[in-house]
Fold this protein.
Amino acid sequence: MVRRRRIAVPAIAAFALLLAPAAALAASVRQTVAAPGATNIHYRSTLVRISPTVAGVRWRVLDYNDEIFVTNHSRETVTVFGYTGEPYARILADGTVELNQNSPAYYLNQSFYAAGVTVPPYATSTATPDWVTVAKTGTYVWHDHRIHLYSPALPPVVKNRGVDKTTLVFKWKVPIQIGATKGDLHGTLYWIGEKPFAFPLGAIVAFIAIVLAGGALVVTVRRRRALRADASPETW
């Protein structure tokens, strides 16, 4: 009876070890859905079309739905416009990166939800640009509110369809200009439906069965050895 208990204890312990990370994972998923963060893995902002396309100019969305990356190795000036049509950022042909301090976007982009951000009264869509150099690398990365949901709450379209469904939240557009040609970055923001948690019961049962079978084999081998030892003749 004592041997059986010794076999059962490691099996139960192994079962508990498997349950712990599974429960933690489920709790993590629930927390993510309830309180979306800046890089909520359920959101995907994707760049689907660029106009105009120019050799040497590349664009990417970074960190799920957070930032836009641009690098300019062309011979043109690349300009990104802010939320009211004003010039916000530009990369000159020589790689100089400049930001317009009179653009409201200059201030609003400093926070994911623009929480606690105050735009000074002189920063308006009609103000004369006040360019400040921030780099000379030909590359700039900025947070853009147009490519993500402007609220930590779940959008109604996701609530209606269910968090387990992949859903288009909205299509977005960021106005740009390369040289003298104006255009846009076109993209989409999707909610990626969470897959229902499937408890690996079959794998756990199989694991416990292997542990018990291994323990039973050890007991059998020990018993046979003990019987052979009892049956052998005594030597003096």
